[in-house]
Request: fold
Amino acid sequence: MRFLLGWVCMLGMMIAGETFASSRSVVEKPIVVILMGPPGAGKGTHAKPLGEQLGIPHISTGDLFRENIQNQTSLGQTAKSYINAGRLVPDAVVLDMLFARIDQPDCNQGYILDGFPRTVAQAEALDPRLKNSRVIAVNLNVPDPLLVERITGRLACKECGKLYHKKYSAPASQGQCDLCQGTLFQRDDDKEEILKKRLEVYRAQTEPLIEYYGKKDVLREINAADSPDSVFHLVLDQIAEPVARG
Ligand code: AP5
Reply:
């Protein structure tokens, strides 16, 4: 019933030509969506269109690190050794970078977090900044064998960051982005042996966040093993309901 109500409200807004963003006059608080899930669950795939739909920025700590690595900053140099070993970058480094980003004015109406928080310490450090926000933590569930297939087949555009998959969402021309014709590449940390370490780290350090947000009653569990389109609609359903409730 709650599911139906959310959709009816969202549909009404769409028929009236409104996106979530333009309908947010009914919502008092900024909305913060925390996209959770293991490597390959689809956080990056859904964060961007979700941000466009909600009219708020999506912030990926992984992307911020990769930008710093590409620009050869000292932050990038520190992060690179951890990322390429499949380990987490130390909390202090992540928190400084993330807080500088969410303090930007474009985050005043809310934001989508992709890949943050990743430890209970990061979540606790974030909490005081969420006091006046409506928080939804969406956990994307995917079985391990599918994660391996998704990660080892992932390609990303060097220019615009669009994600592809060799099997599930292949580009029209091999090695080239459909949108901007940029070159597609495979991430260094997407090799199977590094992925194994990333999954171990996820289980040990990040998975406890499911219980953390469950206890706060903001957790929404999603079966993310289906096609990208159907998973995206499941995610939207979870966001639509609290937005519709205002
Ligand atoms: P990060 O870049 O965040 O990597 P990750 O969390 O391991 O997640 P991924 O980007 O690998 O997966 P995803 O869930 O976004 O999946 P995607 O949508 O791309 O972090 C990288 C590293 O940075 C970390 O290991 C760590 O070292 C460091 N770091 C980052 N944040 C940190 C933090 N807070 N603290 C400390 N360290 C941090 O999908 C994968 C593939 O599957 C794609 O090809 C996609 O097309 C395909 N796909 C997606 N959904 C579907 C579907 N439904 N059906 C079929 N294919 C699909």
